[in-house]
Every structure is written in C-alpha cells, then in structure tokens.
Amino acid sequence: MKKTIDDSITNKVYEYRVLARLSQRELAEQVGVSKQTIFVMEKGNYLPSLLLAFRIANFFQVSINDIFEYVEEGEISHENV
Predict the structure, then answer these.
(1) Taking the CA of residue 63 as centre, how many other CA atoms within 13 Å lie in the half-sphere pointing to its CB?
(2) Which of 31, 54, 59, 70 has its CA 20 to 30 A from that of 78?
(3) Residues 6+ apart with CB under 8 A from 70
C-alpha cells in the first residue's frame, strides 16, 4: 500500500497583483521569475519554492500566510499499488 496525503497550498497572488495594478510580467520581473511562472501559479498549477513565496510576500509587504494558505484535505488515504 502507498500512503498519499492530499494536502495543498492555495494562493492569492492574482488578487494581490490586481490590487497593485501590476501585469503578470511586471510582478515576475519584481520577484525574479518568468511571466509564465506567475501565470501557472495564479491558476493553481504550480507550487512556488519557499524562497519565491517569501519574495512575493515581501514584495507586497505582507505575511507569507496572507498570500499562501496550507489546506489540509483530511486524513492520510491509502491506495493499492
């Protein structure tokens, strides 16, 4: 049996970026990544490194927990392998 954990991280990068009136490209330049990285992060298809998460939070001058939220999806589930 293989144990899986269905936890995830949600983010509010889009909301903070729009409130700051920044394009994806502008935010990407400020935090040192590509526009594509910001795009996929906003869509929830990319989990940033801890370093990038801190860069984004610092750029917006908020706590990392204000932008990124850990979501526990319940107990550990078991899958047959």
Answers:
(1) 3
(2) 70
(3) 7, 8, 9
Q: Cβ distance 6 to 77 under 8 Å?
A: yes
CATH of the domain at 15: 1.10.260.40
Q: Are 10 and 68 in contact (CB under 8 A)?
A: yes
Give one DSSP letter per residue of 14-43, joined into a string: HHHHHHTT--HHHHHHHHTS-HHHHHHHHT
Whether pTM exceeds 0.85: no
pLDDT, tens only, 8-54: 899 999 999 999 999 999 999 999 999 999 999 999 999 999 999 99
Residue 14, domain extent: 2-68
